[in-house]
Amino acid sequence: MVSTKPYLIRAIYEWAMENGFTPQILVDAQVSGVDVPEGYVNEGKIVLNIQNQAVQHLELGNELISFSARFGGVPVQISVPVDAVLAIYTRENGDGLSFVSEDPNVETEGEKSQEESQEESRKESREESPESDSGDDGGPDTDGSGPKRGSHLKLVK
Q: Is residue 112 left, alpha or beta, with left meaning phi > 0 and alpha meaning psi from -120 to 50?
């Protein structure tokens, strides 16, 4: 069965072009089969403008995206496996789609930062309210220190 990813890429591309936007793809340049100018790769990724005025012979296939473009005035043939596309979006407003890795062993930067921030939150909450074996649930005003506050909720009958 063919992945939905190439169809979604084509749909966002067509939508962007019909609305006068500049479609761009974010590519993982380290994926096997990616053929892009190395000098333009930043942190293993490259953003490619695929607007029809910027490229020639654009083919948005089910397995491969290919086109010819100019980098620094030099024509270059670009080849990107669909699996290497991390996102397609518009330059003007950022609307589009980002894709999760199909390899479950590969984490994206967003997943890493989310996990790291969750771990930091857990560490901060442990530092702010140390756990005890008293059986309480760690809710507000259960540690006995400080004045007891009333509920901020109001009973309505």
A: alpha
Q: How far apart are CA 36 and CA 78, in angstroms?
A: 5
d(CA 8, CA 12): 6
17-21, 36-40, 74-78, 99-103: the lowest-pLDDT one: 99-103
> Does residue 101 contact residue 109 with C-beta atoms inside 8 Å?
no
In the numeric block, which tokens belong to residue 101? 């890795």
Q: Are 130 and 138 in contact (CB under 8 A)?
A: no
Residues 106-145: tens digit of each pLDDT? 444 444 444 554 454 444 444 443 343 444 444 444 445 5
The distance in angstroms from the start CA to the end CA of the chain is 58
Strand order in the sheet with 74-81: 55-60, 64-71, 74-81
- This prediction's pTM: 0.65
Q: Where are the alpha helices (DSSP H) in 3-156?
A: 5-18, 109-128
Q: Which CATH architecture has domain 5-98?
A: Roll (2.30)
Tokens of 114: 């989310």
Domain layout of the chain by residue ranges: 5-98
